[in-house]
Amino acid sequence: MERATLMAHCGAQKITRDELALVPTPLGTHTHRPVPHHEIVDALVETLGFRQIGVHKMEFAISEDGNKCFGLIELGHGFTGARFALGLRNSHDKTMRLALTVGYRVFVCDNMAFNGDFEPLLAKHTKNFQLTRAISVGIDDMQRNFEPMVEGVERWRTAQLSDAAAKLIIYRAFVEGELEAPRHLDRRVHDLYFNPQIEEFQPRTTWSLSNAFTSAFKELDPIPQFKLTGRLAAFLPRVGL
């Protein structure tokens, strides 16, 4: 069984928290102050600790030049079969806003799903930006999504899907392009759903289909994987899930 959630190739690389502190941060200007990746992680861990939320695992990936960073912070508590997790993104070169999203990691297949796309913490890295305050507000917003997320997962576990409905959703996602995903993943999602290797996903339910998508996304590089997993959270409600 594949265990990696953050995959790194095509120039991107996985990196530890300690190594993240060694990534150089470009000099700022009078209007733009890049926030070092490791300072954001440190502030997140500290803020979570103040709220009595432990960290179970962390994974990070950076672009070849070190300017872009994506991370996954798996929390120490969750719900049946899954843990809550925070997705993090940051850039030094103005290509992405500093942002968080809330999600969960499924134990049995070690995949990741987001509750929504990344929510920006600021418009740009200005010299007056207060990282600790922004992180605190962001974590509070994330916590408010925990209970609705659990309720949504429980509905999906019991929601039966006909084979025709599942095929139509996959068709809309890839052939009609509603998910804006690489077309080659359509066969992978189909196989994971209709020929599941994991007993938990053998029932024909919305939960199984969602995990077929997120499991297929693990084949992508880290940056498109994070973006596509976020888009999936908006796509599934559009198709009635």
Structural class: alpha+beta
What is the subunit organization of this protein? single chain
Number of strands: 7
Strand content: 15-25%
Considering DSSP H and I runs of 4 or more, what fraction of the residues is helical? 25-40%
Give the helix/strand layout.
Blueprint: E1 13-15, H1 17-20, H2 37-50, E2 55-62, E3 68-79, E4 82-91, E5 99-106, E6 111-114, E7 119-120, H3 131-144, H4 146-158, H5 163-174, H6 185-194, H7 206-217, H8 222-238
Antiparallel strand pairs: 1-2, 2-3, 3-4, 4-5, 5-6, 5-7
Helix pairs in contact: 2-3, 5-6, 6-7, 7-8
Explain this structure.
There is one protein chain. The protein is an alpha+beta fold. It folds into 2 domains: 13-152, no CATH class; 158-238. It contains 8 helices and 7 strands; from the N terminus they run βααββββββαααααα. The protein has helices at 17-20, 37-50, 131-144, 146-158, 163-174, 185-194, 206-217, 222-238, and strands at residues 13-15, 55-62, 68-79, 82-91, 99-106, 111-114, 119-120. A hairpin with a 7-residue loop joins strand 4 (82-91) and strand 5. Helix 2 crosses helix 3 (131-144), helix 5 (163-174) packs antiparallel against helix 6 and helix 7 (206-217) packs antiparallel against helix 8 (222-238).
